[in-house]
Amino acid sequence: MNKKKLIAGNWKMNGSLAANESLVKALAQGVGAPACDVAVCVPAPYLAQVQALVSGTPIALGAQDVSQHEQGAYTGEQSAAMLREFGVRYAIVGHSERRQYHGESDELVAAKTAAALKHGVTPIVCVGETLAEREGGHTEEVVKRQLAAVIHVNGHCISEIVVAYEPVWAIGTGKTATPEQAQAVHALLRAQLHHAASDHAAGIRILYGGSMNAANAAQLLAQPDIDGGLIGGASLKAPDFLQIIAAAR
Ligand code: PGA
Questions:
Q1: Which residue, by CA, sits nearest to atom 1 of ligand 1?
Q2: Ligand 1 pocket check: which of 165, 169, 173, 212 to mutate, most ligand atoms within 8 Å of Cβ?
Q3: Quick check: CB of 80 below 6 Å from ligand 1?
Q4: Cβ neighbourhood burial of 26 (10 Å; 0-12, 13-18, 19+)
Q5: From residue 190, how far is each of 40, 111, 140, 163, 242 by CA, in Å?
Q6: DSSP-based three-state secondary structure for 40
Q7: Catalytic one among 97, 129, 166, 186?
C-alpha cells in the first residue's frame, strides 16, 4: 500500500510576518525531498503570505479551522471556498482547543468536515479524551463518539479525511502518550474506520498529536497505526520540525 505519512505543523495563534518568513524559509531550505507529506497550518491572516512562501516547495498549506457555512452573515468566519482561493490543502477541524474554548460539538465538527470536503480541502479531524475522561476509563467511548460523528458526512468517502488522535492531557504539556498508549487508541480508531468503510480504512491516515517532538517522534511514528503527526510547539522551531519530518518514513 502506498500511504505516505503526513507531518502537519499547527502553529496555533503564533507567528508574525517576520517570524513566519524565517521559519518557512528555513523549512524550505532543510526539507529536501521528504519521504512524507508535509504541511503547515497557519493563522488565517497569514495564509496569503505563507502561500507565497511555500510555493514551489514540498510544503502544503493548511488552515486551523473552517466555517460550516457557505457564505453570508457569519462575522469572523472563513469559508472553505475562501481557503481554497489561497491554495489551502488541509484544514484542522475540531481541535480540542476549539471544542473547549469555542464550544464546538461533534455535530458542528461534522458540518465543518462536510464543508471542507465539499470544496476539496482535506479536513484533519481531531479527536481525543481529557485527563478526567482517561482516568475515568472513558477514552474509548469518547474517541469513538467523536469519530462516529464524522464518519457519515454526506456524500463523501471517509477515505478523504485525515484523523488526528490528540489526547487533551498531552497537548502543550510536555506529557506525551507513550507509543503503546497512542498505538492502542489508533488501533481502536482504525478498527472503527474498518467497520465503516472496509475498503478504505487502511488508507486513511491517523496522526498522533500531543507533545510530539524531535526526541520522541521516531518511536511514535514507528507504531503500526500511527501515520504521521500533528505538531504544535515543536513545529515553530525549524530544526525540530525538520527532525520530525526526517523521522517520518
Ligand atoms: P503540541 O500541540 O505539539 O504543542 O502538544 C499539538 C496540537 O495541539 O495540535
A1: 232
A2: 212
A3: no
A4: middle
A5: 25, 22, 12, 10, 27
A6: strand
A7: 166
Output the nine-digit C-alpha cell for 235: 513545529
Instruction: Look up residue 235 and give its DSSP letter.
Output: G
Options 95, 129, 133, 186, the catalytic residue: 95
Q: Over its length of 249 residues, how does the chain's per-residue pLDDT go in tens digits?
A: 568 999 999 999 999 999 999 999 999 999 999 999 999 999 999 999 999 999 999 999 999 999 999 999 999 999 999 999 999 999 999 999 999 999 999 999 999 999 999 999 999 999 999 999 999 999 999 999 999 999 877 666 677 899 999 999 999 898 889 999 999 999 999 999 999 887 888 899 999 999 999 999 999 999 999 999 999 999 999 999 999 999 999
How many Å lie between the centroid of ligand 1 and the Cα of residue 95? 10
With 0-12 / 13-18 / 19 or more C-beta atoms within 10 angstroms meaning exposed / middle / buried, residue 148 is middle
- pTM metric for this prediction: 0.96
Separation CA 165–CA 129 (nearest Å): 9
Is any atom of ligand 1 closer than 6 Å to the C-beta of 231?
yes
